[in-house]
Amino acid sequence: MKLRITSLLGGLIVLALGQFTLAQTGGLRLPKTVEAGTAFSIQSAGSGKAVLYIVGPGQVLRRDVQLGEMTSFAPGDLHNAGHYVVVLVGDSATENGAFDVTAAHQPTALSFIAKPSRLPVDLHDGISGVAYVFDTFQNLVLQPTQVSFQLSGVAGAPQTRTVLTRNGVAWTKMNSASKEGAAQFEARTGSVADKRVIQQVPGDPCRLRMNVRPSGQRLALETEPVRDCSGNAVPDGTIVTFTEMYNGGEATVDVPLKRGVAKTEMPAYKGATISVATGVVMGNEIHWGKE
Amino acid sequence: MIGGRLLAFLIAGATVALVVAGSLGHGQSGLDMAGARSGTDLLRFSSSPQAAVENLADKIAQRDWDAAYSNLANKSEFSETDFIRDLSGSYPSLRSHASLDSFDVRPQHATADDAQVRLNLRWSTVVGMFLDTRNLRVTKTGDRWAVVWPIVKEPRVPPQVIPVNYLRWDVIYRGAEDDWGAQDVESPHVRIVDMHPVDRGGGVVILGELLNEDVVPAFVTVKATLLAKNGSPIATEDSFDKISHILLPRQVTPFLIEFHNVALSQVDSVHMQPASTLVAASADPVVEIEDQHLNPGPQPSFTGKLLNQSGQVVNVAHVLGTFYDNSGQLIWVSDGYVERALVPQTPLSFAISVPPDIASRVKTERAVTTTYSSNRFQ
For the whole prediction, is pTM greater than 0.80? Predict the structure, then answer.
């Protein structure tokens, strides 16, 4: 029984393939490619009535046609790029064919991915931008298209790169500026542009120094304004760790920078060694009560 | 006939005796099973120092503050509110949500009308057990013993204004309706700056330190997967609470990941997966950790005092101790919770246990703390 069903299905497939081959050599005249959204027509041969089906990605068209006449399709009838199969079903025969719908040549939209959205200053090739070029129907434009990328920061000349798309995608890398701040990263093709904001933040603190003075029974510790190697102020909230070692004991406090400096109070022990650090960056050491 | 009457009389007598015995027995075991011992006053009179302390502990376990307070010998020295605050805390904390899991009473010294007894109260909380040891004096008045409670009054902060330059980060994430290419906020960049596996106690322990190298706060977790020589995963675990989950910019946390029943010899490599999420956070409160000491001995501990420099009450403080050897290598991470609330400007002691074999190798140590305040985001 199983063998019979398999044989039957095989026969149907062979029959369909045979019809397909026949249709390709029949009287159905199809365009090789159609630009998405444009008008086109299909010429059939013979006489009588038939039904024409066009089946493609996410779209099916059905038309009652008079064989031997031209069937016209209006602009916008087919708008999804891809491979379409055409089936003409007549009273006595069926014809098949296929054509491709390509994206419109004119880009009308960009999808722009910029990463990362936040990075330290002075990083070579630290910013990557990827632009996908689309037509008005959101088809990826596969034809090579020029895309220009521009990164303009708060200071200095903007960086510009012009790249041709490959398979609808253009990409580039940019350096982060030496000055902190929000940079505008723009991708443009023709009159279409998309913009992202890249936050360029200070890097590792470059020179961490603190001062100490007595404050009653305790010591008042305060850092100098904390800056990175490019002179940018390290942002408030950054944790600075003060450590005091004394007589086998230890005191630590994690203090966030506020208004550019970290300050706290710690116990006053003669001979204590006080150090300061932020992340993996060490600052100066002070020996309290020693010359 | 006489024999029959005698038999009936014996059966009736035995039945009554059994019913009485059964009732008494049931009453005792029922009370014990309930754990409440609500009939303690009836069944166990405070006829000895130990019984008096046990009665008191029973009442504390039941949170029957009235009964516990009324039986104290020195109740004229403090109010019942002070007594409750001593045991439950003045501010919401682990202690106020703890329940007494068990206790033990250890007589230390006794005379005819005075005794010293140690009471170990083991409180259970959502983060584990904590021990509260009270050395009690018990005095005899008439035929009854009563406890002199060593009241611990939590300091009350006098009304004042503590200026804080409030610093916090708020985050706006991308919405569901945004285009797929639209940018989302970048996750914080975190980096493992130290990591090594240790063969310990029939298992493998991964020790390390994680740095938030970004300018925004991060919620961090670290997951580790042990891989065999053929590359297949042996086990995956994460650091759970052996890490400080909220890392402010440039803050470093230690972490410890435990794998039970895995030998280090089975492990070819370790796949580490630090994960970070950008979260809203506050830079306050600032907590100083002073008087940090590693105390050697048969039961080594790492002790110190937490001093809340801000004006906000900290409800729960979690302390992580990081221990390094002579060469500066990380050799252990221990943690502990402080069961009382951290009141502004008031030092509060903490103690973390350290394995004896580790303690003998420790050259330097470092403590970090994570705090939780119920009104932080109000």
Answer: no
